[in-house]
Amino acid sequence: MENKEIKDIMENRENNLQATCPVLFPENERAELKDIERSLIKRYRKHIWSKFVKAIKEYNLIEDGDKIAVAISGGKDSLIMAKLFQELKKNGKDNFELEFIAMDPGYHPSIKELIFAVADKIAGDYPCYMCARMRRGSLYAKAKELGCNKLALGHHFNDVIETTMLNLLCAGSFKTMPPKLKAKNFEDMEIIRPLYLIEEEYIIRWMKSTGLMPLNCACMVAAKKIGNKRYQIKDLIENLKKDFKNVDSSIFRAAENVNINLLLGYEINGHKVDFNEKYENDNPFYE
Question: Judging by DSSP bridges, how do beta strands 266-268 and 190-192 pair with one another?
Fold first, then answer.
């Protein structure tokens, strides 16, 4: 099916997937595979390839002998992550193995009914977090079955700072999305986020330039219940950038520069330390 046909379907009111989240339409005819791959290394070297490699090195995301399950949803982020891993094996490190895995996101009627019934029962008006946890559990299980010790997810720089702001403004807590995380329920399994330093703007630019059309999220629950909150945070950050230079980078760096001495309280390994405990027994405030 040609891009024009797909675009016509997407824009048809009876198939209005843009009600959920923005649809990316290609700006060009589909490029040759070799040109798509070369563009990551050449044209987008500064903003995509170099930051991909930097995140892997800075956060030690790949180690000798790793077998990494790359989770592919068909969206722009997971597609570029898959290609970056392939290019890394061809042009850089080759000390690890890859498995590419995908799952039915739950739109088959019987599966959708189960997922949303459980998520709605547990999480009420905000089922997305619980739904994501359930889907991630399935990915963990498949990765384990394939002998993988790491699961790569396609969260990027903007996901990180938006999560930080969501927690701050909506949950009254200061926490962010870490570049890697040990799984609680799957022994010797880690999540890694190799797009951690890559800005979404450049992922979108690359995707449009390839002539490819990524899959769009079709979850109406997300659109109606929680999707708008993240878009509000995204818009807030864009507006802040007009008045505060590099505010997105400042939000990101804030999670690297936390001064525990000047906090009213914090939590570590499940133990909450309040102000008085910290003041009397740990590090009192100094002028």
Answer: unpaired
Going by pLDDT thresholds of 50, 70 and 90, the confidence category of residue 111 is: low
Show Cβ contacts of residue 122 under 8 Å, excluding neighbours closer than 6 positions: 130
Is there a contact between 152 and 70 (Cβ–Cβ < 8 Å)? yes
Radius of gyration of the CA atoms of the chain, in A: 21
- Owner of token pair 């923005």: 22
- Give the residue among 91, 284, 258, 106 at the shortest CA–CA distance from 168: 258
Q: How far is CA 73 from CA 11, 45, 104, 261, in A?
A: 22, 24, 9, 42
**CA quadruple 73, 192, 37, 7: dihedral, nearest 10:** 20
User: Within 10 A of 221 (CB to CB), how many other CB atoms are there?
Assistant: 20
- Model confidence pLDDT, tens digit, residues 212-244: 888 776 555 555 544 568 888 999 999 999 999
- Which residues fall within 8 angstroms of residue 95, CB to CB, at 6 or more apart? 62, 63, 64, 65, 66
pTM for this structure?
0.82
206, 160 contact by CB (below 8 A): no
The CA distance from 130 to 133, in Å, is 5
Nearest CA-CA partner of 19 in 227, 200, 230: 227
Q: Distance of CA 32 to CAs 1, 37, 42, 193, 211, Å?
A: 17, 9, 15, 28, 9
d(CA 51, CA 154): 14
Average pLDDT, whole number, for the chain? 82
**CB 87, CB 50: distance < 8 Å:** no
